[in-house]
## 1
Amino acid sequence: MASDFAAASLRRRAPGQMRALLWSRVTVSLVFAAVLVFTIAILIPLAWTVQMSFKTTREILIDPYAMPSQLRLSNYAGLFLNPSVEIQTYFLNSVMVTGGALLISLLLSTMGGYVFGRMRFEFRGRKVFFYVLLFAVMLPPQIYYIPQYQMMAAMGLNNSQWSLILLYAAHSLPVSVYLMSTYFSQLPGELEDAAIIDGCNDWELFWQVMLPLARPAMTTIIILNALYFWNELLLAITVITDPSKRTLPAAIFNFIGELGSNFGGAAASLVVSMLPILVLYLFLSRRLIQGLTAGAVKG
Amino acid sequence: MSDLSANAPKKAMPRHRAGRASPLWIAAFLVPVFGYYLTFTVYPLAMTFFNTLFKSTPEGGQLITRFVGFGNYQRLFSDGIFLGNAVPNTLIWGLVGTVIDVVTAVLLALLIYFRLPLHNIFRVLWFTPVLLSGVIVGVVFRWVFNFDWGLLNACLRAVHLDMLAVDWLGRVDTPLMAVIAVHWWHSFGYSFVIVLAGLSAIPRELLEAAYIDGCTRRDAVFAIILPLLRPTLITVIVLSFIGKMRAFDVVWALTRGGPAHHSETVATYLQKRAFDPLLSGLDLGYPSTIAVVWFGVVVAGVLIFNYRASRAGMT
């Protein structure tokens, strides 16, 4: 044993290997410095925006880069109190749309994922159904959003939050079903056997046994979809034209026009709308990264 | 997404004692999902194709819709903005942007993979822009590119490169570059994380064995890591390219395709043709034609690329 260990440690210290495994201190410092500069350059626009949000427009125009002389909250107060802005309306609209669409997409994607993931639900042609559903994963929204708009107009739902809820859920459905089905297919079949012997029917089996077990996958879907729903612009400005029904991104897009040269107020509105996500990211960075990449790397 | 097929439901081996669910239960689960999908995705998709055959014109306060056959398609091929601005811009962006995206993603992911100091912090910071709404990104960078007091020109002037400080979003030649750069800023973290996930799937033992055989780090990257990363790279290329084809919010908030269509992409042109009161004229047949021709070509091209690239890797 001892000699084996000695041989291994000798091999580990072979000169070529040392060169390969360790960067020299100089290289590491240079690379690290370059990466640091890169990272700061990437984040400076955001820091600048936050800094601007605490300054009056006059201060910004005198020197856009000076630190605020005092921590002014007047820009933020204006967003909530100014009757021509009232950002809380749009914030609530976004919460309602995101929440509603999440409920529908969770319900449908767990049901769909269950059918495509469990052997109990195997039937002839299931694969064909699965591929038909997956086909839409590749499609850009542009290829069907005009008729979706027409549909909503025909149902009288344009300018109602229901249109966004229904359409967002539809857009997220293929990826969500796909993710749920891969998760469900990994759960052991013995669970089903046991539950059925205990007298569960299929709905109870799904609702009381399998769904609680699928919580991690559901979290992934919630993260993935919530971010998409919260940030979406294309449908939000197409389907909804009534100013009071706008979601946050659509409203911000309009503020910037209306607020004109009120840069402080505009910067504050950007901070308010990115704050919820950044706070979430602060606590859940690993989960968020996993959730957002699950659709691409799962498999 | 290149490996979707790997997760298709396997052929059933009825090995559970409890057996299959009854067809009624299967239908109870499947019908709501497929009904929803058919109603809100497949039907609109079909309608897009159907719409291309019609043209609506307002006449006497009413919208009259007429069958025009392939007239919209003919019109598309003599549309100067579509052929002269939107398509070239989108193609340049799709090619240049994807290359930049993939190169930076691989470079950054390798740095993290080889455990650069503070790599966990860098990883989290680089991913932050991905979380932001494209509207926010577009507006922030409208300020960054501002001629008088924008961050970019302030930096250039600070190092006495005043002649390079131009009106980035107001000229003929720079807005497309700005769009490419800003969208890269918004999305490189996503490609980076996917490459990193691909890297972490490579067994470390393989690298250790190579090092013992005297392989240098550079050799290891080019001879072992990149070849093994091939499926991930195909995925990243496809996702990055499609991301640029569908991207709308960043461009819309940054330049709106302007000035004078110089940063127009197909997505923004489509939106203007369909819903901008100045350009659309309430006709949805022509924009549908744009969607079918362009996005049909893009999706078909991506599917072919994906198929051939993953086939070539197997032999």
## 2
Amino acid sequence: MPPKIDREKCDSCKAEKESLCEQICPGDLMTLDEDKKAYCRMPRDCWDCMSCVKACPKGAIETRIPYQLGYHVAKLIPMMGTNTITWTCIDINGKVERFQYINRGMLE
Amino acid sequence: MKESVIKLIHTDTIPESSICVQCGKCSSGCPVAFESEHSPRKVIRFLQWGCLKEASQSPFLWLCASCQACTVRCPRGVNISSIMLSLRRIAQQQGWVMPEENLSYYKTFINMIKKRGKISELRLGLATALHKIPSHPIEDIVLFFKLLKRGKLR
Amino acid sequence: MQKTVPKTGIFIFDQGKRLARSIDLDAVIQRLARIKNVIRCEVLTDLAAPLPSIKEDFTSDKFNRIFWVGKFSDYQKKTIQSELSSAGLNPYMYEWCDLEEQGIGTKGVDSGIQTQKAIILIQMTLARTRLLEPLEPLELPAVDASLIIGAGVSGLHTATSLIGLCKKVYLVEKESGVGGKVASLHRLYPRICDPRCGLEFEIQKIRESDMIEVHTLSRVKSLFGSPGNFDVRIEKQSRYVSEEKCNACGECMKVCPAVIPEEQRSRESAFINETSQQVLNSLKSDKKAIHPAVPMTYPSTFVIERQYCPPDCRECVKACPALAVELEQTSSELAFKVGAVIITTGWDPYQLSKVDEYGYGIYPNVISNLEMERLLEDPPVLKEIGFIQCAGSRDERHLHYCSSVCCSVSLKQVLFLKEKLPDALCYIFYQDMRTPGFDEELYQKVKSLNNVIFIRGNPSTVKPGDNGKLRIHAEDTLSGKEIDLSLDLLVLAGGMMPSQGSFEIAQLLNLPQNNFGFFESHLQCHPEESQRTGILVGGACRGPMNISQSIESSHRAAMEVLPFLNRTILIEPKYPVLDLTKCDKCKRCMEECPFLSYVFDENGFPSLDLTKCRQCGNCMGICPLIAISLRNNTIKQIAAQVQAIKPSFISKEEPVILAFLCENDAYHAAQSAVEYGLPVPPNVFFIKVPCAGSVNNALVADALAFGIDGVLIAGCKDGQCHYVKGNQLVKTRSGDLSDKLQKMMIDPQRVRFESLEIRDSKKYVELVKSYIEELRAMGPNPFKS
């Protein structure tokens, strides 16, 4: 499901050419619209890899979970540390689970 | 005293009086200031002290012609003419207008609009004169002829 | 590449056995000795005796970094460092851990808890020590010449200070001669001296020095490069007279037919009378098209203003005995390198014609205070003169601020006027008489003169009166009476605004100006700075000031410029390094650097100008990919410190706070809290950072992910940050992280920013205590194991 951008938080990465979400998306789906806010060009092609969510420095992107897995109420949120990623998973009933992984690639 | 002042008057005129530095530019340029003992600067000074009653009873208040010369020149941006208008309202509401006859002109004006929807200058002059004490009508009649000669009355 | 194994020696210095009273040192040593690669770990009660054996162990490579625990005096620290560096240990290979400043030794805290905390603190610093690397300062070549823009009183004094120190100076001035506004003043108070006397003194030094190049009729065209190595191009207008040959004999002036027309002043006959005609005459200058340099005749070469020359006139060429007139001269460009730039572009008088109620420019006998100086040379006979203070100043429609000197100037002018015209009647209309310091004497003197009347009230308009006089109507606010006067001359005491030259330079060099157009960086501590390293400001282009203040300010600028003129600039190895393999050119480091120290290189990556960098670490804080690290304080090192904290060390329910304290203000507040014996709770661990803005969100995320209950970032108040806006940047960032925490169902208050000033130790303790209460109410961090 396509990523949802908080238009107030998005600051177009102040970049001249490509914003961070645009650079990291493996499917080349993210870009900036006329108001210089990020948006997903082809929502149906999005793989939900969540690279954009992790890359956004302002935390302005959220993915919508597919309805089979939970849809609106459910959320999956990564928090990026220096060499860790902490995932918070909220299911459709509101139950919260958290997972932490060491991501050695970040600091090397 | 200050809090009650703010409640009575329109909030965006009274807070401005505290930024006045009493430079006197408003009084220097006011065309009517020296007809009375008070000047616009003095009235603002009363407000700075929170003396609302003194300010509202100032003889200057009813002479103000709202010509805006003071407001345009004030270096601090105090809106003096709107403070004067607000004070007139307060004076009228609180019954502090002195002497009463100051209001006669305004009352006549408003009543005439309510009744006819327009002002006839001749009737206005006569009506105002009749409300005043006897000596005034005589002065007014002299003035009436002067204005007639200059073609100011239609 | 072979990785060096970090072998550490830990030495706990317990002078007077203080630490042993609060914590169980044996337990600490036992715990530490079990850690891998800790070679030596012992308690010392004295320094002199063990130092030789430490040196011995270091030179025999038993350990390659040392970690000192405890309180050391500055003398002891210096001794240790010099002893060990003589043995070859790099000064960046030590760590110092002061347990007591973190709260160990506070009364009323259980000894077991304190021991645990001490162990954690040591482990934090040990984690950091393992990642230390030997660092050397950089030496960059620099040019020991400087550029001074503007040759008024400030520029001249800065130039003479620098040439007195044998530093080369390029002095650039846009007029044909030096001297600026001060040269056009009549006399100065209190010595009643001619201002040109003081200026001539400096010019003499410049004339005799061979370390200075003065370029008049010149403007700076471009300035590129970095502090220590600026490339300057200046454009020189033609003088049309040869500097080598002209000896200022003046023969050309005698034959020149063209007189430069006077500036436009109203000549409507209704406003002219005898007095105003005399005023106009006094202000007229009959300058010919060829004339000596103005304002002062240095350089001594004459100059021709060709726009006033009649076509095909060659009188001066024919008359000059030295054949010095060269009408074919064209403008030229010069390029040179300098190490630093000082801007002394001065001030311009406010355009009083904008204050239309006073009729400046309409009535010929309404003049400005600057024009009054010219009039005082030879004043016409005047009977009644008025001075209006604060004309166009302290006024929200014109200049909002007070120009500080105009009251003293008007009083001085009254004093001189009364000497020449003792029977004149002077009126001074004022709002406040501002004569600070010893100028009070001037005020008293003028007050005691006959026929000088002070009226506290601002006139509102000036109207034409009979016979070309001026009618003023004012209210004397002190007596409430109205005043009606008829004056021969009215002097408007106008204010000072930044000069046209200042605005041009600000545009050219991209220098920030304050709301009023003056250059300002940090008024209290660094009045000579301009927010661009290597470019300093002095004199009235910084703000309205009198002559002695301008001179002081220019000497200050000259002092501060010296480090850039040293042939080499030493850069401490605390600068940021960018990992280009991680960078994806998002440009955030460039945008947020308060000193614009990053520029694009050929490949579009940010490249740091080391001489401009102030080593604040704000770029490290903002980089979303943590690609930037300060050399002596890398992200890895801080992350290692953060991850070494054991959040359940007191108990699972008792919250643990990690505080990032900025080393300029907040850190001192925390340190002095302990010195004053305030009860600092043991729940807080702090890490010192160069600026609150250098805290990266990833580090905060780490702290939370590893179970720390609350993260406190403490920095300066708005407007007080040493690095301009570090505190605001981190506030916004931590706000973003809080929003994310909210979505993650973690209380967003677990991350907060607070401002602390340097003596706010009580506030610090209150903050920590109330935060602990809040965290207790929230419950432990869900990530706590």
